[in-house]
Design goal:
The complex is a heterodimer of chains A (about 400) and B (about 325). Chain A has about 400 residues and is α/β, with parallel strands linked by helices. Chain A is built from 10 helices and 15 strands. Chain A has 2 domains: about 210 residues, Response regulator (Rossmann fold), CATH 3.40.50; about 110 residues, Response regulator (Rossmann fold), CATH 3.40.50.2300. Chain A is globular. In chain B, strand 26 and strand 27 form a beta hairpin. Classes of the chains: A alpha/beta (about 400), B mainly beta (about 325). At the A-B interface, helix 1, helix 2, helix 8, helix 9 and strand 11 of A face strand 14 and strand 15 of B.
Chain lengths: ~400, ~325
């Protein structure tokens, strides 16, 4: 056989296989994805040690896009990502209206109100929106929307995970310090709800009211501040913007561990997750973003990977067809957390293990062994079907 | 009478001595288990994060994927000495030695490529772009097809070894970890860890021929995660490690039905048969031990403590004492 003949035979073989394998390769499918970010002015916090990354969330979307593009390259699926970032106080609705015309898949990186602003636009009908930033409970309950799926865990799932760990360790008597911001209050409420759910007691609470720069006097002030709390096993802190929480650890009156937003905390993703192949994802992310992967990065990564998984399996870019697939029993997502991830069919929340961590190590992955559930153990975390007021997913 | 004679014959047969070599991912060592005494007889240092492990055809060389050292190490199994390193591409995780006893096909997990290395010239022959997180590697008995599975792309990539190019890419369930051709070369099995299945392909046309599904009473379905597996030499049964469910499944290869689940150590990964195929040794990552399964009775008979996070396993026959 001449070299030419060999080449022809090889080409024929390749062509044959391509046709026989995946008929879809005949037609290229375009999957345009929009990352819509409502920028916020970060509030001033006491410490400058850990600034919020500029590309928080977005970097995760970019890594997932590359993951999808590699797979898409074998199947004729072409993924693209457009970023629209609206300045604080800007017109999010107008920006969304323009962008929705060209992208059937939208990640919203904003507050619960931002998610609803986008989801309720006429242009959003028939589109598939992913909430990648808001852990707000109402979005999974009375304010749920049929066109919105959530890849970021609800706050209640994180606080449930934390309480499962405290209950498993039999550290059941708690006290709590609550910050003054609305986000602090919301997180404190989630902690109270989870404590009740898992049979723990918050015996006393104090509001954080300091308005001075405490950094030079924490060792003098914080013990006195915590001295009159009733005795407890663990001190909870609700400081959602990372303002004062870091100064509570090791400054308490009683020698007690701290948990909540600081100390022992529960996250959708953390840089200390190593098992379940997570190192590969951490490495890809660090190579791309030159920083650690955080919860919002992971939520955005998951959203785009879920779109990719659905497109791969369904060979379609029709958002409604993909929504039906994502909500079906057939869908399963590998999220590097040791279990297949799926969507809750009653409110569109992605069902996922939660990492309970400190700053240097994974303590455990919740659901914690022994917390059972009739459907799926992961449904012991967050709003379960009977608790959710969501009706948009019925029928 | 006949039965007694058979029994006596079995006893009279000389047991072939041998060793199971186990890589300890978190200790940077290999443990050597004597298959007769079922004890660890030697432990040798390796490069960082050793995972995939295999012997040359004549068992004179041990190849070790030292993932975090970005190299494949070649060890003299008689001395434990590292003879030299092979270029491997970045983060080699698993590999397979071609039937020519010369070419290694290596999955580079962090790099989305498969590297082909000539173990004689110690040169990289080819690098083939595959899906994200390549891991499982297999080569057909005739050496004409190599397979890489990619964990995040969820595909088996079919490589024509004559040209080192892809000729097919077939989807499997989520997170494929391991691939093996049947001894006759007609079927390819691919395990999917998160999907919880094994997909069986007809090699001739790369079409799906069936799926193996698993269900263990009392174990949550999403923790039943097939990873490594081995076929018995008769080609009738497959032994499948089911990860964090801590069981090995025995699968009838004709019907693809699971016949039995054997309880082993925690997070079972890979396995190797003894030289006479009477025993199967499984690596249990989380419990840091190796479970010995008696193949005839399909019962676990012993646990052997090895290093931290044992991962790969390979067998070497040795001379009987």
């Amino acid at each position: 056989m001449t070299r030419h003949d060999t080449m022809t035979a090889l080409c024929a073989a390749v062509l044959f296989c391509t046709c026989a394998q995946v008929q879809a390769q005949a037609a290229q499918i375009d999957i345009p994805i929009l990352y819509l970010r409502a920028e916020v002015d970060q509030p001033p916090v006491l410490s400058n040690l850990d600034p919020v990354p500029e590309d928080l969330g977005l970097a995760g979307a970019e890594v997932a896009l590359k993951d999808n593009q590699t797979t898409g390259g074998f199947l004729g699926h072409n993924y693209t990502l457009t970023v629209v970032s609206v300045e604080p106080g800007g017109d999010l609705a107008a920006a969304a209206r323009d962008a929705l015309g060209t992208a059937p898949f939208v990640l919203v990186d904003g507050t619960a109100a931002d998610v609803l602003t986008v989801a309720d636009l006429p242009e959003a009908t028939g589109k598939l929106i992913f909430n990648v930033a808001s852990g707000d409970a109402s979005l999974r309950s009375e304010n749920c929307r049929a066109n919105v799926l959530h890849t970021v865990p609800e706050e209640a799932a994180r606080t449930d995970a934390l309480m499962q760990v405290l209950q498993a360790k039999q550290w059941r008597n708690l006290a709590m310090i609550v910050g003054p911001k609305p986000a602090d209050q919301a997180f404190a409420e989630a902690l109270r709800r989870s404590a009740t759910k898992f049979g723990l007691t918050i015996g006393g609470e104090k509001a954080w009211t300091f308005d001075t720069d405490l950094r030079d006097s924490t060792m003098a002030e914080v013990p006195r501040f915590t001295q009159d709390l009733p005795d407890h096993d663990v001190l909870l802190v609700a400081d959602a913007t990372d303002d004062f929480g870091r100064y509570i650890l090791h400054n308490t009156w009683l020698p007690r561990p701290v948990a909540g937003t600081h100390g022992l905390h529960a996250e959708g993703w953390a840089s200390v997750i190593e098992a379940w192949g997570a190192v590969q994802l951490q490495n890809r992310f660090e190579d791309h973003a030159e920083r650690d992967m955080r919860g919002r990065d992971y939520a955005a990564w998951l959203a785009i990977r879920a779109v990719g998984e659905a497109v791969t399996r369904q060979n379609s870019a029709d958002p409604m067809a993909l929504r039906a697939y994502l909500l079906s029993d057939a869908f399963q997502q590998d999220g590097f957390k040791g279990r297949a991830l799926t969507f809750r069919q009653w409110n569109g929340q992605m069902r996922q293990p939660i990492a309970v961590v400190n700053d240097r190590a994974l303590v455990t992955m919740a659901p914690v062994e022994g917390f059972l559930h009739q459907r799926n153990e992961t449904d012991s975390l967050g709003l379960d079907q009977p608790e959710s007021q969501c009706t948009a997913f019925e029928g | 009478m006949t039965r007694l004679a058979l029994l006596l014959m079995t006893i009279a047969l000389p047991v072939q001595a041998g060793e199971i070599w186990v890589t300890n991912e978190k200790d940077d060592t290999v443990s050597v288990i004597d298959v007769d005494t079922l004890e660890v007889v030697k432990t040798y240092p390796t490069g960082e994060r050793p995972r995939g492990v295999t012997f040359s055809r004549d068992f004179s060389r041990l190849y070790i994927c030292a993932s975090d050292s970005d190299t494949v190490q070649v060890m003299d199994p008689n001395t434990g000495e590292i003879l030299h390193d092979l270029p491997s591409g970045e983060d080699p995780e698993q590999f397979v030695l071609a039937p020519d006893d010369r070419h290694l096909f290596i999955a580079n997990e962090d790099d989305a490529v498969t590297t082909v290395v000539d173990t004689q010239t110690r040169q990289v022959v080819a690098q083939i772009n595959v899906g994200i997180e390549p891991e499982g590697m297999a080569v057909s008995p005739d050496g004409k097809i190599a397979i890489t599975t990619s964990e995040t792309t969820n595909m088996a990539h079919w490589i024509d070894t004559a040209t080192n190019t892809l000729f097919a890419n077939t989807l499997v369930d989520s997170r494929p970890r391991h691939a093996e051709f049947t001894a006759d070369g007609t079927k390819l099995w691919v395990s999917s860890e998160i999907g919880g299945t094994i997909t069986v392909f007809n090699v001739a046309d790369q079409a799906e021929a069936g799926k193996v599904r698993f269900e263990i009473t009392g174990v949550s379905a999403d923790l039943v995660q097939p990873v490594g597996f081995k076929f018995n030499p008769e080609g009738t049964k497959a032994f499948v490690a089911l990860g964090p469910s801590n069981h090995v499944a025995v699968v009838d290869m004709a019907s693809l039905a699971v016949e039995k689940y054997i309880l082993v150590g925690r997070r079972v990964w890979h396995m190797a048969f003894s030289p006479d195929n009477s025993k199967l040794f499984t690596t249990n990552g989380v419990s840091g031990d190796v479970t010995v399964i008696d193949v005839a009775s399909e019962e676990a008979i012993k646990s052997i403590k090895v290093g931290r996070f044992p991962w790969g396993a390979a067998m070497r026959p040795t001379k009987s004492n």
